[in-house]
Design goal:
The protein is an all-beta fold. It has no helices and 15 strands. About 0% of the residues lie in helices and about 55% in strands. The protein is globular.
């Protein structure tokens, strides 16, 4: 017997036939004074695009940054070569200055270093947090490099509203199957969610 809503068949003979949404939550991890969060499963050929959401990332120590690293061996090692570009937009709480600038200290050129996902150093006060998102495109490809785009907004250490745009690629034709978010020093709190985006 079919279940029909507003003319659309939702369930028929025990199977869902309607779309249940294009974005699927795969996993969620919460850091509590943690040095890193790693996603070592769920990144494969199932989805053409993966999305990470950064929710209330807060450093334990002032002027620290969260970094991105990728792996082709399930997280046994990180350090895939990356080339990236970065644009930062600032506005001081005091209104003393506002600026849009190319982030020369936030980009990488054929480097295995961690990629900053937040343009400037985080504060360690309770309200000095950052939120944002990252898209990773076709990580299972064994033909092309793996592009990604990051956008974050933070209340930074100075304090400023800091809007950061970063894009680039993992320069490998091997499949990226694990992602690490690691503090450059010290620990951090916050939640990171991983979604798969289907039919994209």
């Amino acid at each position: 017997m079919a279940f029909i809503s507003n003319g659309t068949t939702i369930l028929d003979n025990g199977s869902f036939s309607a779309s249940l949404g294009s974005m699927v939550l795969l996993s969620e991890q919460t850091a509590s004074s943690s040095a890193s969060i790693e996603f070592t499963s769920g990144i494969d050929s199932t989805y053409p695009i993966y999305k990470f959401e950064f929710i209330n990332i807060n450093a334990d120590t002032t002027d620290k940054r969260l970094l991105l690293k990728g792996s082709t061996n399930g997280g046994s090692s990180y350090g895939i070569t990356k080339t990236t570009s970065a644009v930062l937009i600032y506005h001081a709480e005091s209104d003393a200055y506002a600026e849009t600038a190319y982030g020369t200290s936030s980009d990488l050129a054929q480097s295995t270093d961690g990629q900053r996902i937040i343009g400037t150093g985080m504060g360690s006060n309770a309200d000095d947090n950052a939120c944002g998102e990252m898209f990773l495109f076709n990580p299972s490809s064994t033909t092309f490099v793996k592009h990604f785009m990051i956008r974050t907004i933070q209340n930074d250490k100075d304090p400023n509203a800091n809007d950061t745009f970063i894009s680039g690629y993992f320069n490998t034709t091997s499949a990226i199957n694990a992602i690490q978010f690691i503090q450059n020093s010290g620990n951090f709190d916050g939640t990171i969610k991983l979604y798969g985006i289907k039919d994209s």
